[in-house]
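Project standup — Tuesday

K.O.: blocked on the structure for the chain from last sprint. Re-posting the sequence here as requested.
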Amino acid sequence: MCSLERISFLQEKLQDIRNHYLSLKSEVASIDRRRKRIKKKERESTVAASSYSSSSSSPSSSSLTAAVMLTLVDTPVSSSSCSQNSVVSVECR
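H.V.: unblocked you, prediction finished:
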């Protein structure tokens, strides 16, 4: 092969390598985008599940707190406990 043939051969091979590199690069980018979407969906489902569970548990805990407070209010108070001025605070979470 003369020098011009070798140069053109090497340029063709170099172009083939570039094309292969670009195809691999686009495949990696596609995989990364897919992973990012999957992670985003997992985060959204986790946030949605935690907000659902906290919103569903709030009424029950507030009703429990209300029941405890009503129980404390309804208990009979003796005259000796009135003079002590004791305060009871109950918090349920």
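K.O.: great, moving the ticket to review. The chain has a mean pLDDT of 76. The chain has two helices and no strands.
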